[in-house]
């Protein structure tokens, strides 16, 4: 089956790469955390405006009455009606709940959770009861103790397993069901509200201590607001444990946060699985489509290959408008780097990079490719040139070119460090793409900072700033000036020998004094005013 290339509007996204200084990294994280706290502070103010529904028996320092920027909705926030508020003021949550009415079963559920928290047990929901007939309506529902019922007995094998049979070992899970009969039964009354008509208070097991009550599953929930906070922290590169510790500290303790570390890790795992089930590569391509819709000159292509029965992704390429601009300015030397292999699908990250006027790596385009075959390279390079308006690079190197291997390895280390500090062989394509975009964003900030520094300051030198050195300080960026200054210093320590003259051509040998290994052959043409050196740095 021939590879299929998918072409769309001539637009796409890009990325730049370099080492990220810890100060920039920490500053961005602090700014993001400040943004998160501000968002959650607004949630608190909103809760204060709508009122805090608390039970009279609960002390002001108890988990039920404590507000936090990270706890999301408190256990009592779901009781919304004024009738519910007045009823709560009259109810003893350690006593019987018979006669309590509410508009919804969710309110009934929350009330029973209040009772459970006061007594010391967890809550589960039984199946909802419905009316008969075509027009089914909710009749009622039972809410039971979490230790209601008994665990199903495991199936007994009729024949023993074979000795060499590779069978997964069954996980031993502690028994938590005791057949407890405690429950409340809610039924829709004549007024159309749900009323608690039965409440069995007594339990057949030991109740939970207050210090452990928050660990019950019914007391733990990752709300939509908390999920957004977890996602934001993941985007800025915080590890799950670091993010959880920060949330716990902000909430005032794990018992006030409303979920455990395991809940936090499970949420992240479910999110990753959802991305993969939805199509890891498809998620990335969808993200490229979205960027293309927002950015006029964004360009991307992808191609599928494989046998007759599969459509396997074999290549993605993209660049954004800023990459195109950088290429037209700094595209004298272009490096096609395939030294960085990452992610769980063994795709090769192949950035096409150059160097800007601050001697920083700039991204001209980026590709994920399945192999390093000639046909694959041809596809990437032809797509790259098409994205740049068919403009050919003046010089292009691949990391396989022996003469450039060391130089590219240095530049590749910078690229890999920028991305590799967060990505590893288990990183999904979606995660890697997200990390890569964040890295590019930081790189561009670094370039902007360097531009600002150059426009608002002048370089200094340990040499007198006159003549050629003075001129160089005015036309070069600070970084390039430092390189020029070093070469200028060496030039003053060089000695020159005129070996021959043929017509208007002069042949010299130039070297740093007492360093024979630095000797170079220099040719000067007076008629053409041209210099050529064996170091090739002038060509």
What does this structure look like?
The structure is a single chain. The chain has 539 residues and is an alpha+beta fold. Among the domains are: 4-13 and 279-452, no CATH class; 74-150 and 176-219, no CATH class; 467-533, no CATH class. The chain is built from 14 helices and 18 strands. It has helices spanning 22-50, 82-90, 105-119, 224-235, 240-251, 254-257, 261-277, 280-294, 321-330, 374-387, 405-420, 429-455, 467-475, 478-492, and strands spanning 4-6, 101-102, 123-125, 129-130, 138-145, 183-188, 194-200, 299-305, 312-319, 333-336, 340-341, 348-355, 361-369, 395-398, 494-502, 505-512, 520-525, 530-533. The strands form 3 sheets. Strands 1, 8, 9, 10, 11, 12, 13 and 14 form an 8-stranded mixed β-sheet that branches. Strands 2, 3, 4, 5, 6 and 7 form a 6-stranded antiparallel β-sheet that branches. The chain has a 4-stranded antiparallel β-sheet with strand order 15-16-17-18. Strand 4 and strand 5 form a beta hairpin. Helix 1 packs antiparallel against helix 4. It is elongated.
Q: Main beta sheet: strand number and arrangement? A: 8 strands, mixed
Strand content: 15-25%
What share of residues is helical? 25-40%
Shape: elongated
The end-to-end distance, rounded to whole angstroms, is 45 Å
Strands, count: 18
Round the mean pLDDT to the nearest integer and report it. 76
Structural class: alpha+beta
Low-confidence stretches: 6-27, 46-83
Q: Please give the count of helices.
A: 14
Report the radius of gyration as a whole number of Å. Answer: 34 Å
């Amino acid at each position: 089956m021939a590879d299929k290339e998918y072409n769309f509007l001539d637009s796409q996204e890009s990325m730049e790469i370099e080492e990220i200084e810890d100060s920039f990294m920490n500053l961005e994280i602090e700014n993001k955390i400040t943004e998160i706290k501000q968002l959650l502070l607004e949630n608190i103010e909103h809760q204060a405006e709508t009122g805090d529904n608390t039970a009279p028996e609960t002390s002001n320092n108890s988990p039920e009455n404590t507000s936090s920027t990270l706890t999301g909705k408190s256990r009592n926030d779901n009781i919304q009606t004024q009738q519910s508020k007045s009823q709560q003021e009259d109810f003893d949550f350690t006593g019987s709940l018979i006669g309590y009415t509410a508009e919804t079963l969710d309110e009934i559920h929350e009330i029973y959770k209040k009772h459970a928290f006061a007594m010391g047990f967890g809550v589960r929901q039984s199946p909802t009861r419905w009316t008969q007939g075509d027009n089914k309506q909710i009749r009622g529902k039972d809410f039971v103790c979490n230790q209601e019922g008994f665990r199903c007995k495991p199936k007994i094998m009729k024949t023993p397993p074979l000795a060499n049979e590779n069978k997964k070992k069954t996980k031993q899970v502690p028994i938590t069901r005791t057949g407890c009969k405690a429950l409340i039964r809610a039924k829709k009354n004549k007024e159309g509200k749900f009323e608690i008509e039965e409440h069995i208070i007594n339990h057949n097991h030991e109740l939970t201590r207050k210090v452990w009550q928050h660990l019950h599953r019914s007391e733990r929930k990752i709300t939509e607001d908390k999920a957004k906070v977890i996602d934001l922290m993941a985007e800025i590169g915080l590890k799950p444990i670091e993010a959880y510790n920060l949330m716990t500290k902000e909430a005032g303790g794990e018992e006030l946060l409303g979920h455990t570390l395991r809940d936090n890790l499970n949420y992240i795992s479910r999110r990753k699985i959802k991305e993969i089930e939805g199509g890891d590569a498809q998620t990335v391509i969808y993200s490229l489509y979205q960027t293309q819709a927002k950015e006029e000159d964004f360009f991307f292509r992808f191609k599928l290959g494989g046998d007759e029965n599969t459509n396997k992704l074999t290549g993605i390429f993209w660049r954004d408008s800023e990459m195109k601009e950088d290429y037209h300015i700094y595209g004298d030397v272009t490096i096609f780097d395939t030294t960085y292999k990452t992610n769980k699908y063994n795709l090769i990250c192949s950035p096409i990079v150059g160097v800007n006027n601050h001697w920083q790596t700039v991204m001209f385009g980026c590709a994920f490719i399945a192999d390093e075959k000639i046909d694959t390279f041809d596809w990437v390079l032809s797509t790259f040139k098409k994205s740049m308006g068919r403009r050919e690079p003046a010089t292009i190197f691949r990391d396989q070119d022996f003469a450039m291997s060391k130089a590219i390895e240095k530049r590749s280390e910078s690229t890999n460090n920028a991305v590799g500090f967060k990505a590893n062989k288990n990183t999904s394509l979606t995660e890697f793409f997200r990390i890569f975009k964040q890295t590019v964003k930081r790189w561009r900030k670094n370039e902007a900072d360097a531009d600002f520094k150059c426009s608002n300051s002048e370089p200094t030198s340990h040499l007198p700033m006159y003549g050629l050195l003075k001129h160089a300080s005015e036309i070069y960026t600070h970084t390039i000036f430092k390189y020029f200054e070093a070469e200028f210093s060496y030039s003053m320590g060089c000695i020159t020998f005129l070996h021959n003259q043929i017509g208007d051509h002069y042949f010299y040998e130039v070297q740093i004094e007492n360093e024979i290994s630095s000797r170079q052959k220099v040719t000067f043409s007076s008629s053409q005013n041209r210099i050529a050196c064996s170091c090739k740095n002038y060509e």
